[in-house]
Design brief:
Layout (H helix, E strand, L loop, with lengths): L2 H4 L10 H23 L6 H29 L10 H16 L3 H9 L11 E2 L2 H14 L1 H5 L1 E5 L3 E9 L19 E8 L1 E5 L2 E3 H5 L5 H23 L14 E3 L8 E5 L11 H9 L4 H4 L3 E4 L1 H7 L11 E2 L8 E3 L2 E5 L10 E7 L1 H4 E6 L3 E5 L6 E14 L5 E6 L2
Parallel strand pairs: 2-14, 7-8, 8-17, 9-12
Antiparallel strand pairs: 1-15, 3-4, 5-16, 6-16, 9-13, 10-11, 11-12, 13-17, 14-16, 15-16
């Protein structure tokens, strides 16, 4: 056995695509060695398995490092350039409120805007620049939000009609009687918005520091908290005081699919991929989608499931998983993009660990306009709390656009 193959290395987190490609090549070489031994009926030693896992973990870390660099470059500024006078006035008034608790400016601005919910007990609307900053960061951090369609509403519920079946049509001769066609069937979908909150704390010295951009600080504090809660709810939320996740809907075998349910295919083996021709079930999942959905479809799974997918090959010995071609791009599986969502379930018996679909058409995220901040200098002295709230909802809007892969017989 070659010492080079079993050699373990210290893998640092890279910041270049070249390092990522070299790590993936080493991962492939190690996995090829593992598969070769299994095909010959030789057991794989623990050191090879350990190295393979370490390389897989390194690929995850490297991908996240490159994504962080791209995110840092893509973040918009909050310096007010190009803003209107009213926006600059709002920004200055909000800054005074956050730093010193001066409510006069924001109260005056919201009175001019005829805002009905503005009061010290309900908080004040943040400036538009800050709201866009929070929305942009959430789209980049929350994986499902970045894939789904996002709608902004001013009310508490979005009601959306959806045409389940179109009107009846048919061919007739020039002089034949035209029978009356049936009306199309519409389903009304409702997406209520629920309150999501975060409460970052700041010291008085931080707020007194004029060099600190308080808007940037608030958006940075709440973005991760909001994104974590949203990401989980969009996947598995039960719809009670939170959005309804796509895994919370009733599922049914794809062969018996009906509107209102999500169709699934099975791997045929409890809790794992089949030992041979694992690519076939993934191809079946792809072509379970109609062509109109398939062109914009994407895979969604968590890190552990992706680690298993990386080891799979097609019948010609080619790896199914392909690394991203450039920083900021996604890895792909059988030619379709792959998004990592940590809130997806692990591979388990009858577990729905992989989702494939056109999420822009299949899932809807509803944001109620406005993010509010309530300053509380009393509850946690000497800290000042900022009770930040937004209202968000979500749910499946097209049940034919998302397909599930079930790890069961």
């Amino acid at each position: 056995m070659s010492k080079a193959i079993l050699e373990t290395k210290t893998l640092s987190t890279p910041e270049t695509l070249g390092d990522f490609a070299r790590t993936f090549q080493e991962f492939r070489d190690t996995n090829d060695h593992r598969l070769e031994r299994l095909e010959k009926g030789i057991s794989v030693d623990a050191l090879t398995n350990e190295k393979l896992q370490r390389l897989s973990d390194a690929l995850d870390l490297q991908q996240k490092a490159m994504d962080r660099l791209e995110l840092r470059k893509a973040r918009p500024t909050l310096d007010g350039r190009g803003s209107s006078y009213a926006s600059l006035e709002h920004k200055a008034a909000f800054d005074s409120y956050v730093r010193r608790g001066d409510e006069n400016g924001v109260r005056s601005i919201e009175a001019k805007a005829l805002s009905i919910g503005s009061a010290p007990d309900g908080g004040y609307l943040v400036p538009p620049e800050l709201e866009r900053e929070i929305g942009t960061r959430l789209a980049r951090i929350s994986p499902i939000r970045s894939l789904a369609t996002v709608r902004q509403v001013s009310g508490s519920v979005l009601k959306k009609p959806f045409s389940v079946t179109g009107p009846a049509v048919g061919w007739v001769g020039e002089t034949d009687v035209r029978p009356q066609t049936e009306a199309s069937k519409l389903a009304e979908l409702q997406f209520p918005t629920m309150e999501l909150y975060a409460m970052p704390a700041a010291t008085a010295s931080l707020l007194d520091d004029g060099a600190v951009d308080v808007e940037q600080w608030i958006s940075g504090e709440v973005e991760t908290a909001f994104a974590e809660q949203e990401g989980k709810a969009f996947i598995s939320g039960d719809g009670v005081n939170k959005p309804r996740g796509f895994l919370n809907y009733e599922t049914i075998a794809e062969s018996a699919w009906a509107w209102g349910k999500l169709g699934y295919l099975t791997t045929g083996v409890a809790g794992k991929f089949p030992a041979t021709a694992a690519s076939d079930i993934l191809l079946d999942t792809i072509y379970a989608l109609k062509a109109g959905y398939r062109q914009n479809a994407i895979w969604v799974m968590n890190r552990k499931t992706q680690a298993e997918v990386r080891k799979l090959k097609d019948n010609d010995g080619n790896y199914l998983w392909t690394p991203p071609a450039a920083p900021g791009q996604q890895a792909s599986l059988l030619g379709f993009g792959l998004t990592e969502a940590e809130d997806m379930p692990d591979i388990a018996n009858n577990g729905l660990a992989i989702v494939f679909g056109d999420f822009a058409r299949g899932y809807l995220v509803v944001d109620r306009t406005g993010v509010r901040v309530l300053r509380d200098p009393y509850s946690a002295k000497p800290y000042v709390l900022f009770y930040t709230t937004k209202r968000v909802g979500g749910g499946v809007q097209d049940f034919d656009a998302i397909k599930l892969l079930k790890f069961g017989a």
